[in-house]
Amino acid sequence: MKKNITFLGAGSIAEAILSGIVNAEIIEKENIFVTNRSNQQRLEYLEEKYGVTTVQNKEMAIRSADILILAMKPYDLHESLQGLKGFIHKGQLIISILAGISTDTITKELEMASPVIRVMPNTSAMIGHSATALSKGQHASEEHLRIAEELFKTIGTTTLVKEDDMHIVTAIAGSGPAYFYYMVEAMVKAAVESGFDQQIAKELITQTIKGAGEMLQQSDDSPSTLRQKITSPNGTTEAGINVLEQNHFQRIVMDCVNKAKERSKELGKN
Ligand SMILES: NC(=O)C1=CN([C@@H]2O[C@H](COP(=O)(O)OP(=O)(O)OC[C@H]3O[C@@H](n4cnc5c(N)ncnc54)[C@H](O)[C@@H]3O)[C@@H](O)[C@H]2O)C=CC1
Ligand SMILES: O=C(O)[C@@H]1CCC=N1
User: Fold this and answer.
1) Could you tell me if the ipTM is greater than 0.90?
2) Domain 176-269, second-level architecture
3) Nearest 5°: phi and psi at 149?
4) Per-residue model confidence as pLDDT tens digits over 197-243
5) Which of 43, 100, 131, 223 is the right S-S partner for 54, CB 3.0 to 4.6 Å?
6) Closest ligand, as measured to the CA of 99
7) Pocket of ligand 1 from Cβ distances under 6 Å
């Protein structure tokens, strides 16, 4: 792709995405520009690690961009664009990865009919395994969507969704990895409590999650059937699952996803 791409925001997800793009070599490193609010040390780290160009002079980086990736926190959007929208021009493709924020809000903030694509990646982008969802705003064309898809395919899978569904998608896929990490934390704790080695426990659990993920992808069985095949009558799995059931584990996970979805909606309103 012969394009200049500029990140506004240099946090953890910006790093995950740019790491994926750099590894895939889809855009020359020299054509990737990264800016943040003020943390010079952070920019130096990204420049050193990925060979991208980091800049304090946002004007130049924004004006010269073909694609602008908005990667600041949702609550920093307004202030950030207030200072920068003068440098943004209509021909640029705006990609927003901000949780909760609609493409219409971005258009309003920019005060121009820019093409905006809303994207929800996750941090597995870092190793090319993001499950990324995309939807296009009213001023974006199919070609804009195609460009965004091409870019995000370098960091994992891409799925087109209706913009209204972005809240639930954010709850299951954007935030999703964190729930699994949380579960792993608990499993490791239990293993350590049993006197088992922490590192070996982590390795075994990691391979177990990877295997389960591959099974979910490759097997024709439903998640429920896959679970049942592990659960021998009166065996260890049943004993464990019974505790989850007694404590309403599925209800808790559903509440967790719903709460994340509601939070996404709130972020969009504020
Ligand atoms: N962390 C994640 O897993 C995911 C995050 N997101 C979204 O990505 C966005 C960033 O999230 P994180 O990377 O986790 O946050 P973060 O706090 O790690 O990074 C935010 C970045 O924005 C920069 N920033 C703030 N104001 C700015 C300005 N005026 N100009 C330029 N840069 C500015 C900060 O300096 C910082 O580099 C959020 O909107 C979040 O909803 C989306 C998907 C996944
Ligand atoms: O927690 C958040 O708000 C962001 C959006 C999805 C993942 N992290």
Assistant:
1) yes
2) Orthogonal Bundle (1.10)
3) -65, -45
4) 999 999 999 999 999 999 999 999 999 999 999 999 999 999 999 99
5) 43
6) 1
7) 8-14, 35-37, 39, 71-74, 76, 80, 97-99, 120-123, 174
